[in-house]
Description:
The structure holds 2 protein chains of 2 kinds.
Chain A: E1 19-20, E2 23-24, E3 29-31, H1 39-49, E4 53-60, E5 81-85, H2 92-104, E6 110-113, H3 126-138, E7 142-147, H4 151-159, E8 164-167, H5 181-190, E9 196-198, H6 204-212, E10 217-220, H7 222-225, H8 230-250
Parallel strand pairs in A: 3-10, 4-5, 5-6, 6-7, 7-8, 9-10
Antiparallel strand pairs in A: 1-2
Helix pairs in contact in A: 1-8, 2-3, 6-8
Chain B: E1 15-20, E2 23-28, H1 33-39, E3 48-51, E4 54-55, E5 72-80
Parallel strand pairs in B: 1-5
Antiparallel strand pairs in B: 1-2, 3-4, 3-5
Amino acid sequence: MAHADLISSATLTDPQPFSIAGREFRSRLMVGTGKYASNSQMIEAIEASGAEVVTVAVRRVDLDRSKDEAILHHLDPEHYFLLANTAGCFNAADAIRYARLARAAGFNEWVKLEVIGDQQTLLPDTIGLLEATKTLVAEGFKVLAYTNEDLITALRLEDAGAVAVMPLASPIGSGLGMLNPYAIRTIKQRLSVPVIVDAGVGTASDACIVMEQGVDGILMNTGIAAAQEPVRMAAAMKAAVEAGRNAYLAGRMPRREVAVPSSPTTGMLGS
Amino acid sequence: MTLSSTLVPDAVSSEMALTVNGAERRIPAGWTLADLLASLKLDARTVVIERNGTILRDRPSFAKLKLAAGDSLEIVHFVGGG
Lengths: 271, 82
C-alpha cells in the first residue's frame, strides 16, 4: 500500500538536475532582489522561494547615504549565487561596461545580460544583445541572455556562446503570464543550453504552466515582490515550479474532446 | 582626515576638482584613492571603482593611487534588481 506522505516531491528524483555551464543549482527557481518593501522582507521571501541564484543590479553608490541600498549587507554571498544583471542598459556598450563592473566585484564571471530596446515595453534589443554576448563570451563571461521568445534569436545566442538563454514569458514586470507557450516549447526543443524563462510570471499558476512546457527554470522578481504578501507568494512559487516540473516529467494525459468515464461501465445494476 | 577640515581658506589653492558619480567634488591635492574612500566612509571591498573608464581591480594599490585633477570616478555596488 502506498503511503502518500512517503511519496513527496522530495523523494521523486529529477532525472536531469538543474545545471548551467556545468554548475549544479539546488532550485530551478531563480529570483530577483528588487522592489521589496524592506530588506528583511526580501530575505524572508528569498528563503521561502528556496532559490539559490539571486539577481542583483549594478548602480552608483549613493554617496550622501540617503538610502541603504547596498544589498550585500543583507545577502550572504556564501549562501546564494549572485547573478549580476545589466538591467537598465539600452545598448551593447553599456551592458558590456556594467558586466565588467559586476565581475570586478569578485564573486563570479556570470552575467544576466539585458540589452533593452524600448523604454515602454522593455523588450530586448536582440541585435545589441547578440553583439554584447559575443564580446562578453570572448572575455570569459558566462552569459545568460535575456531575450524575447524568438527561436532564431535564441539559436544565435546559443551559437554565440551563451550558457543559458532566457526568453520572456511576457514583458518585464507585466505579470501577464506566458503569452506564447508554443514559442517557448520550440525554443526548449531546439536549444542544447538551458532555457530559463525570465519575466512576466504573475502568480503561481503562471509559473506552473511555464515549467510544464519543459523549460529548465524560471527567473522572477516582480511576481513575488509585488504580491500583497511576498513571502507567502514566494512559497507558492516554489511549490508551483516543483509541481510544474513534476507534471512535465510525468507527462500529461492526452486531451480529448469527449468524456471518458473513470469508473467501470460494466457491472451496473440491472433494471 | 575629513573633507570639511581641509576646506580652510588658505588650503583652497591646494585643492583639486574631480568628478565622482557624476558630481564635482573638491578634494585636497595629493589625495590617494584610499583617502577619498575613507572620507566617503566606503570599504573598498564592497565597491567597484572605474577611473576614467578603466576598472581598478587591484584594491591594495588604492593606498598608493594618487588622484588627479579632472579625474572621473564611478563608484558602484550591487543593489536590488531582477
